[in-house]
Amino acid sequence: MNTILRKSVLGVAGLAFAGGVFAGPAAAHAAPTVESGKPVAVAVQADKPAVDKSKLIPHGVQGAQSRIDLTDEQVANAKAIIAATKKAGMDERAAVVSIATALQESKLENLGHLGDRNDHDSQGLFQQRPSSGWGTVEQITDPEYSTTAFLKGLKQVDGWQDMPLTEAAQTVQVSAYPDHYAQWEQQAADLVAEHWNS
């Protein structure tokens, strides 16, 4: 066989093989076919309902925003805050205020006693103090309990829904740095948007 002809035949065969390899996986994802007159069942994953983002930051963010990369543990703590907020019958905005507060207070880490680095006896996600009546150490280092305690304080703030986030958080927390909560509003809103319906 002529060398040029043989190379041409092998080249065409190679293209046909490559085309079959590349077309194979694509064909596997083709629309279902009907065999024997019976339709093939197709599983469709329903998208989770979207969160109304206008509820998350109704007045826009105030000032420069901070953002940190979160570990699995920090994300789990954000989810625990969301679950406790739902259990308390409060809405997505309450979850945003709660998560932003915990981001400022502990970076969403459930902190125990830090020795000399402690702000008095502050502990947990919200840096609540047993000596100030927030609960026992065991209670305030439980994410559900500490979130519920924070939300109970938030509910007592008249008009908290219409306040800037940092003002609502500060009214509950009485921090030495009252404006620092504002910087976490966008990341908190993003976490609520991602996990509220998950």
**Nearest-angstrom radius of gyration?**
27 Å
Distance between the termini: 65 Å
Helix amount: 40-55%
Percentage beta strand = under 5%
What's the order of the H and E elements? HHHHHHHH
Number of H/I helices? 8
**How many strands in all?**
0
| Dominant shape | globular
From the helix content, strand content and strand pairing, which structural class follows? Answer: mainly alpha
Low-confidence stretches: 2-45
Average predicted confidence as pLDDT: 81
> How would a textbook summarize the main sheet?
none
Explain what this protein looks like in three dimensions.
The protein has 198 residues and is mostly helical. The protein has helices at residues 3-28, 53-56, 72-87, 92-106, 137-140, 143-155, 165-173, 185-195.
Features of this protein?
globular; disordered N terminus; mainly alpha; 198 residues
